[in-house]
Amino acid sequence: MIVLVHGDREYVRAPGEELQTDLGVLTVPENVEPGDTLETHLGTEFTVRRLRGPDLFNHLERTGAPMMPRDIGLVIGHTGVESTDRVLDAGTGTGILSSYLGRLGATVTTYEQNAEFAETARENMRIAGVEENVTVRSGNIVENVDALITEGPFDVLTLDTGDAPDVVAHASELLSAGGYLAVYSPFVENTREVVTAARDAGLSDIQTLETLQRKMQFDDRGSRPSTRGVGHTGYLTFARNE
Fold this sequence. Notes:
Oligomer: single chain
Domain tRNA (adenine(58)-N(1))-methyltransferase catalytic subunit TRM61 C-terminal: 69-217
Pfam families: GCD14 (PF08704)
Radius of gyration: 20 Å
Organism: Natronocalculus amylovorans
Distance between the termini: 40 Å
CATH class of the largest domain: Alpha Beta
Protein name: tRNA (Adenine-N1)-methyltransferase
CATH topology of the largest domain: Rossmann fold
Largest sheet: 7 strands, mixed
């Protein structure tokens, strides 16, 4: 997949696919390279750019509110996910987190309860180029815990579901020695339940972070944090298996 850029307009396409817009029609060549310039039949030029992680956040089909890049960065930074890791994920949704982890080279198994959302996530994994790394399963992870314990151990367990505490209760059995847990929740009540479950499961290094981020605004009057947008996205709880 590549990104076609004209001004502030961007489109994701694969070599051989067609782009149809009010700016004209073009077919992406099979031998296209980043930096190339392609022209529509109306003479509009598009610059070719390599697909990167942030492009996925902007262009994958959404089935709900995806995890924000700021949260994904914390997950990667606090768990140290790497290419040799096996990751178990639940609450796939759009698949933003799974696609980022897959592009790092990790082998990801992710569960999505909604079958239609799961199918959309599979297509998103194709767009992200990680369909070989990421397996999207349709189902409830809690109902499959016993089988997953046998299938494991996993190096990292990432959860973005309301029933996360029920999964965390089995984290010590799902994770390898020294493996990491990362749980995202928009609500503090659920986060408290996750922390309690992690303690009861005997996990260590338990910590919860609130994710806050403010953009800076620069203009002729001066510089200050922007008053637009929402700084808070959610809570991330991390823990480690002994």
